[in-house]
């Protein structure tokens, strides 16, 4: 799959941390997850996934606790989950997931970067069919063979196990996210370099140099939007 997930995560975390936006985005996501069910990760699987992701991005405990306490306190901030699908330069494909309390504002804000950078928004389903929802979990200190063995012993089915940089990355169905983590924890592994539920492109494309610069500007502009939680695409950026 070749996405080099640690490099992608570190680049995004470094960029977002400089503006503290990653904390605000996780705070919103944790609040929404806690409001949708019990504000307890032991009984709320959605919240548990978000907290595992937050841990790999070193989100401060104070941010996490504040969001959960806000949900417990009965705050009535209402957020809508939105997914936009569009095309960037040279026909590249992009998915944008957002959480917003103002749908019209978010739609306009998401549309603007596409229009300014050689892209356009598509209709629902125009892009997503070329992506697969995927759990991505990474660990250090083990080989791919060791990870395969412990997953087999735990009877956990996965799509692939690859060595990428200094980590071993497991790709699995989204509903296997917790099973993979539990298999690692049973084997004494409690720290994860990557813990994501993402949308993986079935096929990556390489853009011409001039189009790639415009594409990266488009992605940066989308990720800078306050309401945008995740941006997925099918372009090989050569990370």
TrEMBL record:
Gene Ontology terms, MF aspect: DNA binding
Residues of the TACO1/YebC-like second and third domain: 79-235
Keywords: Cytoplasm, DNA-binding, Transcription, Transcription regulation
Entry's localization field: Cytoplasm
Keyword Transferase: no
Annotated ranges, domain TACO1/YebC-like N-terminal: 3-74
UniProt cross-references to Pfam families, sorted A to Z: TACO1_YebC_N, Transcrip_reg
PANTHER family reported for this sequence: TRANSLATIONAL ACTIVATOR OF CYTOCHROME C OXIDASE 1
Membership in a protein family: Belongs to the TACO1 family. YeeN subfamily.
Protein name stated in the entry: Probable transcriptional regulatory protein ACFFMS_14120
Lineage: Bacteria, Bacillati, Bacillota, Bacilli, Bacillales
